[in-house]
Write a structure and sequence with these properties.
There is one protein chain. The chain has six helices and eight strands, in the order βαβαβββααβββαα. It has helices at about 15-25, 45-50, 85-95, 100-110, 165-170, 185-200, and strands at about 1-15, 30-40, 55-60, 65-70, 75-80, 120-130, 135-145, 145-155. An eight-stranded antiparallel barrel has the order 1-5-4-3-2-6-7-8, surrounded by four helices.
């Protein structure tokens, strides 16, 4: 189990802008990592109501579960390591894993049990992540439901770093600042819209 404070800023990109940044930073194919994000909540979205997010993230040979809890500045990330088998079982059951013991203990204090936590969305990201003077920069290409998008994400350690500083960084590349929903919100919203469309066809 690990804990850390996450302070991040993000802005959506067009494909042309995304490709321009890949060229600027000389990103090569071997720098990309594919990650599958599985998002969980209760049927009545108790985590969302408290501004929290719960995900399992699977890589090629490792996996982890993370609970994000709002803080005065940034988010507290509580992370439990998982095996790929545990992730496969969670996906098969559409239910969160019983192996994320620290996360489940935290949720239990909120009267949220394992049996309440179901899969609500899935998103696959192809990410290039590297360090720049301002912090850790990720250039993301993501797929979820019938959606496909591109994103500029900066994670910083300095609690004094503000949105205005982030906008200055974007202006360096002639990029506008676009208010961006978190991946979990985008994935869940797209899944719900797709489900409604499927219901309408039945």
């Amino acid at each position: 189990m690990s804990e850390e404070i996450e302070i991040e800023f993000k802005s959506m990109l067009s494909q042309i802008e995304y490709e321009k940044l890949l060229r600027y930073y000389n990103i090569t194919d071997d720098q990309f990592v594919i990650q599958t994000n599985l998002y969980f909540d209760t049927a009545d979205f108790q985590l969302k109501q408290q501004g929290m997010g719960l995900r399992i993230r699977r890589f090629a040979d490792t996996a982890e579960a993370t609970l994000k809890v709002p803080q005065p500045i940034g988010l507290l990330e509580v992370t439990d390591k998982l095996t790929l088998t545990e992730v496969d079982q969670a996906l098969q059951k559409n239910q969160f894993t019983s192996e994320a013991t620290e996360i489940l203990a935290r949720l239990q204090s909120l009267n949220i049990s394992l049996s309440h936590l179901h899969l609500i969305g899935k998103l696959i990201t192809k990410r290039a992540e590297f360090t720049i003077p301002e912090g850790k920069l990720a250039l993301d290409e993501s797929w979820y439901s019938d959606q496909h998008d591109f994103e500029f994400e900066l994670e910083v350690l300095d609690p004094e770093y503000a949105e205005a500083d982030f906008e200055k960084l974007l202006k360096k590349f002639d990029l506008p600042f676009r208010k961006t929903q978190n991946k979990i919100v985008r994935a869940v919203t797209a899944q719900r819209e797709q489900d409604k469309e499927m219901e309408g066809l039945q």
